[in-house]
Sequence to fold (391 residues):
Amino acid sequence: MAPFPDDTPRHSGDDATAEVVEALPLVDHHCHGVVRETLDRTAFESLLCEAAGPGRWHGTLFDTQVGFAVRRLCAPILDLPPHVDPDEYLERRAELGTDEVTRRLLGATGISEFLVDTGFLPDRLTRPDELAAYTGARAHEVVRLEPIAEEVIAVRGAGTFADTCRNRLADASRTAIAFKSVAAYRVGLDLAPERPSDAAVFTAAVRWASEIVAGAPARLTDETLIRFLLWTAVDLGLPIQFHVGYGDADADLAHGDPLLLTPLLRATAGRGVPIMLLHSYPFHRHAGYLAQVFDHVFVDVGLALQNVGGGGATRILAELLELAPFGSVLFSTDGCGLPELFHVAAVRFRTALTALVEHEVGQNHWSLSDADRVTRMIAADNAHRAYRLDS
Fold:
């Protein structure tokens, strides 16, 4: 499959596929809020990719695929020429102000619904309703499991830990659209599939509380307690998102392969709870396999599409779709902090999906009607089904 030479949206009169894909409303099934403050260059670069910031050895993070994409794809939205110098881009950004920049860039994505993980930097990033207000889209909260346990152990201690967590998650489930776990960052994905006993949960909570009293941070890194949270979430019936694969330096990538979740996926099959594998790269083929063999597994490659070049986005999406059923693939941006990341991810996704569909139709592997149906499924319809967004 030959990728587009760049990310330029195509509008030729006979290019029906590109026009259809560009017009599709998108459901961003995994993202975060954006920052409210004006950013200097170092602060901007610290949010640009998974690196902590510009460094002595690798230099500016504008010299990355995502950095080049911001200058190419976002600059025109801010009335600048493509490939503008980074300092000129940031000057224009400051001149317009954070709200106007966010309004323009989010508005250009065509995202109609945001599913927002509120468990990361909650004091710094916009809440779901604030994010949606920039464009008039709808927004829903995704509740992260681990911070709830950390709040409970810090305030209530070990004695009522299990019951309090159950009550907190039950309360959250009344308004949240899904739960999310960052087990990949805390203990890895090689999780035992069994529901832990009440005695095991109590013992683990007592041990954790003792560590906190001795000066340890209230950061959940106990596999038993993470499994307890996951099974409590399963009982509540909402979809559960898992970070898998690519992430920042806190993640041990070797323990983020979604294949490690196989025993847990077997144990949760038939429970009526969709399991969402977020990001997946570089294990996206593994994720596609899991989506094929487990009916309740859904997959995306959102974070990868931000960070790889235009041709790479086409290849990665095509590789995911080698095995993944088309009804199990979702769109996400993993936009976090910068509205630019939402825009880059949306453009890269539309470009990659258009290239893939045009190839399949051009080779007579797909009919035009099937191509239209599949693009709508991946862009929004699958998310509507999995998250019950219309109920």
Notes: The chain has 17 helices and seven strands.
